[in-house]
Amino acid sequence: MQYSSQSVAKPYFIAAIGLFVGQILFGLIMGLQYVVGDFLFPLIPFNVARMVHTNLLIVWLLFGFMGASYYLVPEESEKELHSPRLAIALFWIFLIAGALTIVGYLLVPYARLAELTGDSVLPTMGREFLEQPTITKVGIVIVILGFLYNIGMTILQGRKTVVSIVLLTGLVGLAVFFLFAFYNPENLVLDKYYWWWVVHLWVEGVWELILGAILAFVLIKVTGVDREIIEKWLYVIIAMTLITGILGTGHHYYWIGAPEYWQWWGSIFSALEPMPFFLMVIYAFTMVNKRRREHPNKAATLWALGTAVMAFLGAGVWGFLHTLSPVNYYTHGTQITAAHGHLAFYGAYVMIVLTMISYAMPMLRGRAAANSNKAQVWEMWSFWLMTVSMVFITLFLTAAGVLQVYLQRATENPLPFMVVQDKIALFYWLREIAGVIFLIGLVVYIISFFVGGESKKWKTRFDAL
Amino acid sequence: MSEIFTKSMARNIYYGGSAFFILLFLALTFDTSIALPKRDHRENITPQVAQGKVVWEVNDCVGCHTLLGEGSYYAPELGNVYKRRGGGAFIKAWIKMMPTNIPGRRKMPQFNLSEEELDALVAFLKWSSEIDTAGWPPNIEG
User: Is A38 buried (19+), middle (13-18) or exposed (0-12) by CB count in 10 A?
Assistant: First the structure.
């Protein structure tokens, strides 16, 4: 660690991992409710478990992005963070606000929560992923603004690199598009149209800039490849991302009331959306092959390569699978969507945060360049357990989705939703088993932090330069 | 990548391409906003329909159901439920009798909605079922 203020990243990473555990536990509850419909009812109805599952994901990824930024920016800017105290204060505000919101979901009926938090003043609740009470949303804006100020001041007063500018662009975009969460018109069609400006333009837009910047940073560090080369790749990848992804928003406008021409715009541009992810795979492997040094943190390199591959599969391949409008006509709102959502979020965003944690945490904990061999072996086991089980979750949901599409939408005699759900229950059971393996992988991941042994140093002084 | 393709070229494609496609997206959004009134029939959004959307939201219906295919995949699509169930009477009766007592079946909570709220929700679902969704869903089962 080159700058002492980078240490503020540590609590962010710890909180991220803690919330990740919560997310998975609620995922398992939901998965079981798919096949044992009265499990934990009425204590935790499905919709509550789902809110907790998805909101925890968003919050822990934001913790991860913030922690990654606090670690990366001082090193890129070659100066201490503008205000480490602000970073710590915002950490506690965000954690407490997030925890209170989750507790609110669990303890109070949702309608009562809306009443208690004054949703009627500015109604924003009850929309997918944006279930947070309006006051929580205001809190999120305040935390992000404070965070942007801190990061922005550091970047602007220090050395400006492509990595830090792209990161900052992504973070500013994250803040700007979140503001559409406050726009909730009476007209459902308009509501949905602009709801996607938060959701799609986050995950298939500005978040990819954040992903690209973090991946570039880690690749520069672990491979020692000339920054100029990595930055050129980064520009090409994010250019492709935005060129395809902005109009790719159209794939959400096929069936919500928008004009039919979106079927053309959406199909053509989102069919190109896998390209930046494919480039990312080639880039990550090329950089690692061209490495000019042997970084002792093998686990971080594995996570970095894994991010590129799994993001390509989840966001690229599984996205393409149902993005063309004639296909989407049948698959829209089925388990195919769920399959894609799981692998894309895991491959792109979960894995990039875990990549950064893997790279940075040893230094944040005062170890040399990397954890001991033994600890890295545990970490790599967790990589494979989580990644392979997520692939299986995706495959089982895809199988469920294909059957659902056939039985409910594509046959001569379509069956009602609940009848179809009963017929495909086997795949939900298999998904739940894969989910349990994922949890085991996560437990192994956490154990890896407590495995001791002598931490790894650079082999030679030349390597560390 | 060869030396012919420089970093500044890559940067220019990033800035130029992004700017172009943001503007194109805004232009298409403008055109969509002109086309929408004929498709969403906003003249039919009465105060009751608006109230129904609030009832839909504050009870987090989207946490289990889909509406025009968006939401959760745990319970049936409701964008066309008004047509599937032949009007509002079934919808109201169904909501009132929740939760079902069938062991192992997926459960919908009892929301204790007032008669006024139920009527508003039905009005909202009726309006939703009349949106021009380009022929989606493929059949009445949603």
Answer: middle
Q: Is residue A280 part of a domain?
A: yes
Residue A465: per-residue pLDDT: 52
Residue in the structure block whose two tokens are 């130029």 = B16
Q: From the CB of residue A189, how many other CB atoms can be counted at a distance below 10 Å? A: 24
Among A122, A144, A160, give the residue marking a domain's end. A160
When pLDDT is cut at 50, 70 and 90, the band that residue A458 belongs to is: confident
Candidates A375, A343, A355, A364; CA nearest to A444 is A375
Say whether B58 and A239 touch across the interface (CB within 8 A): no
Per the structure block, which two tokens stand in for B133? 């969704």
Q: Same domain for A17 and A152?
A: yes
Distance CA A255, CA A266 (A): 12
Same domain? A142 vs A256: no
Can you give the residue range of the structural domain that contains A175? 165-291
At residue B112, φ and ψ (nearest 5 deg) are: 50, 50
In this structure, what DSSP letter does residue A316 have? Answer: I
Predicted complex ipTM: 0.97
pLDDT at A460: 64
d(CA B34, CA B29): 9
Nearest CA distance, B15 vs chain A (angstrom): 7
How far, CA to CA in Å, does A454 sit from each of A9, A221, A303, B69? 23, 21, 22, 53
User: Cβ contacts (< 8 Å) between B59 and chain A: which residues?
Assistant: 110-111, 126
Q: How many domains does chain A have?
A: 3
Distance from CA of B43 to the nearest CA of A (A): 10
pLDDT in tens, B46-95: 999 999 999 999 999 999 999 999 999 999 999 999 999 999 999 999 99
Contacts of B76 (CB under 8 A, 6+ apart): A416, A417, A418, B65, B66, B142
